[in-house]
Amino acid sequence: MISTTAAPKPETSLAHISATDALAGFRSLELSPVEVLEAQIQRIEEHNGDRETGINAFTETLFDSARAQARVAADEYVRLARDGGGAPALLGLTVAT
After folding, report:
1. Which of 22, 42, 54, 75 has its CA 20 to 30 A from that of 66?
2. By C-alpha distance, which of 80, 81, 77, 82 is closest to 93?
């Protein structure tokens, strides 16, 4: 059955940004992969392992590695903006494994 109720309004924080919007922001240098990652880390730290809600989505986090990779991606977008060329399709997007 298809719901006739309106979908909830999406969050506007960087932790909830769509991949399409993030990539557009990265390419225009209006947004950094580091900014998005930090917002996501903050959200994870606020909610993961919460005994009250029972959310425990991440049993292992690799934040230091993710931060290093986000910095590399941010530097690559700056280089591409300066020198031209296209970025790999998903450069700078966070992936949970």
Report:
1. 54
2. 77
CB 92 within 8 A of CB 26: yes
C-alpha–C-alpha distance, residues 15 and 47, integer Å: 12
Contact of 31 with 70, CB cutoff 8 Å: no
Q: How far apart are CA 87 and CA 77, in angstroms?
A: 7
Going by C-alpha positions, the residue among 10, 42, 17 that lies closest to residue 92 is: 17
Closest CA to 49 of 40, 39, 58: 58
**How far apart are alpha carbons 33 and 62 in whole angstroms?**
16
pLDDT digits (tens, 9 = 90+) for 37-84: 999 999 988 888 777 776 788 888 999 999 999 999 999 999 999 999
Q: What is the dihedral of CA 32, 80, 73, 33, to 10 degrees?
A: 10
